[in-house]
């Protein structure tokens, strides 16, 4: 290996270590978190649902659904692995980024890549909208049935890799609703 490649690999490893300090794992309700953007685990209709999606629309009020309707009118919903952004209504956050996780065992596409894409696309949209802080729920690990341990590895690896390349985002918060996700993400964050 050339010396320049060794230095470049060392720099990458160092950036990954530094990115760990910009990641926080907490237990709680994402609707109460005051960050620039919270992420919603939505469905492709963008018309609301159960789980964290229902909680965000209930707490944020009708303004979020109004923004979602405008997006649907323009582009007809949101594909699995993609993300869109709306206002946050009455929530303490400034924006809601709606992403659609894969249904585990749906047989449609590569679920791991689609789940990673949810985190990547949400982070890209946050940067494009000048967000410095962003909070994620554990996408796909509820109604969509993704095994929590596998989802935690994908979530953490994807965020660490993104942060190592990006220097705009100052903090990523994983907001876990249950003990199992909290323990898994805490383990992966170290
Ligand atoms: N704050 C943080 N996390 C939460 C909250 C909350 N208030 N409520 C639930 N969770 P899910 P999915 C956690 O089912 O699996 C909806 O109907 C929950 O414990 O909300 O991606 C959509 O419209 C779990 O770990 O999302 C879709 O149809 C995680 O959030 C479908 O569910 C994700 O669980 C999406 O399913």
Task: Describe the model.
It contains six helices and six strands, in the order H-E-E-H-H-E-E-H-E-H-E-H. By secondary structure, the chain is an alpha/beta fold. The protein has one domain: Leucine Aminopeptidase, subunit E, domain 1. The longest helix has 18 residues, at 3-20. The mean pLDDT is 94. Ligand AR6 is lined by residues 29-31, 41-43, 49-53, 55, 101, 137-144, 175, 177-178, 181.
Concise account of the structure shown:
The protein has 190 residues and is of the alpha/beta class.
Structural class per helix/strand content? Answer: alpha/beta
The N- and C-terminal alpha carbons lie at a distance of 29 Å
Our count of domains comes out at 1
| Shape by Cα distribution | globular
Residue share in helix: 40-55%
In what range is the share of β-strand residues?
15-25%
Output the keywords.
47% helix, 6 strands, binds ligand AR6, Leucine Aminopeptidase, subunit E, domain 1, 6 helices, six-stranded mixed beta sheet, single chain
Helix-strand blueprint:
Elements: H1 3-20, E1 23-27, E2 37-42, H2 51-60, H3 62-75, E3 83-87, E4 95-100, H4 111-128, E5 133-136, H5 148-165, E6 171-176, H6 179-189
Helix pairs in contact: 1-5, 4-5, 5-6
This protein binds ligand AR6.
Domain Macro: 10-190
Pfam family, one: Macro
InterPro entries: Macro_dom, Macro_dom-like
């Amino acid at each position: 290996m050339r010396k320049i490649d060794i230095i470049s690999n060392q720099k990458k490893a160092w950036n990954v270590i530094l990115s760990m300090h910009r990641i926080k794992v907490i237990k709680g309700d994402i609707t109460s978190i005051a960050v620039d953007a919270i992420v919603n685990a939505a469905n492709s209709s963008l018309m609301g649902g159960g789980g964290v999606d229902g909680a965000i629309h209930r707490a944020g009020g009708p303004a979020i659904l109004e923004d979602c309707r405008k997006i649907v009118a323009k582009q007809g919903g949101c594909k699995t692995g993609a993300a869109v952004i709306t206002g946050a209504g009455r929530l303490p956050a400034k924006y809601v980024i709606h992403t659609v996780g894969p249904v585990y065992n749906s047989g449609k596409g590569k679920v791991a890549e689609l789940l990673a894409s949810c985190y990547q696309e949400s982070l890209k949209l946050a940067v494009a909208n000048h967000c410095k802080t962003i909070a994620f729920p554990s996408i796909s690990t509820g109604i969509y049935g993704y095994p929590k341990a596998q989802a935690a590895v994908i979530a953490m690896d994807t965020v660490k890799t993104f942060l190592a390349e990006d220097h705009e985002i100052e903090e990523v918060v994983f907001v876990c609703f249950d003990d199992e996700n909290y323990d898994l993400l805490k383990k992966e964050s170290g």
